[in-house]
Design goal:
With 331 residues, this protein is of the alpha/beta class. Helices cover 49% and strands 17% of the residues. It has twelve helices and ten strands. It has a five-stranded parallel beta sheet. A hairpin with a 5-residue loop joins strand 7 and strand 8. Helix 1 runs antiparallel to helix 2, helix 3 runs antiparallel to helix 4 and helix 7 packs parallel to helix 9.
Amino acid sequence: MALWVIRIFFLGLCMAGGLAVSQLHSGLISHWGLGLVIGFGLGGLLIAIDEMLKGFSLRAFSSATFGLILGSVIAWLVDTSHLFEWAEPDVRWLIRVSLFLSFGYIGIILAMRSNKEDFSLVIPYVRFTSQNKPENPIVLDTSAIIDGRVADLIEASFLEGLVIVPRFVLRELHGIADSSDPIRRARGRRGMEMLNRIRHNTRNEVRIHEADFPEEPEVDAKLVRLTKALAGKLYTTDYNLGKVAEIQSVPYVNVAELATKMKPAILPGEIITIRLAREGREKGQGVGYLSDGTMVVVSQGQSLVGQQVQVQVASLVQTGAGIIVFAEIKT
């Protein structure tokens, strides 16, 4: 919306400029109405060009400029090589124009298809790096913020880099926090609390990124495009979003999968300390939970519910919901 306000203001300035030129009596524009039309046409043409160049980044413009310069230099070298001295002046002029257009076009195409490492072939031992570019941008999606484990990783200094929270993710988080559904509202409020923890940490800079992609209706598509544009890494707990990022060759980390991989291995015979939270299904059983949520069923533990006890692991059973540990009271 703000972009169109600027465009309309610019169009008004062009029309005012055309009107001003028509009042100079210089002979260029004879009537004030014609001045308004010409100003409107010029402004409309520039806005149309702006719309056509949507998605044409400054990096692409820089590459195209470099390719044009390189192609022009090659064309100039060919032109000054005395290969076309035999030609008549009119033919020589046509040959020169063809050389500069052809090599300029080829240079632009080659430069835009190349990546920054390819420039080292043109200028050896030189690497083009931006002094202002943040290292290791960490892009967070809504699910990763609500999950909260990213905040723990940042506070424990396991994540280094600039933390990016897109504005559209912040809007989605606000929408969840204002939901009429009490479960979604609770999740949204937890997400806001986790975001405050992340923003107040002293180890990583946190930035709200204003970039948006109006042509992409889905937040997931916006996240993948933003991460790719920033050359960063996407942090999420959404399995489907991770697969979309993988298909588009965008680096990502699924925090839930990371937590699963980092679970400590529990072996039969190991002694652990656990608090029994409730009674089990079978008579005499007590049930407790490890810090990662793994259920521990303790035989003869019913009378000790509510107490901290030491148990010895007897066996482990893999189920669809995860691993269940069966243990006995350590005597």
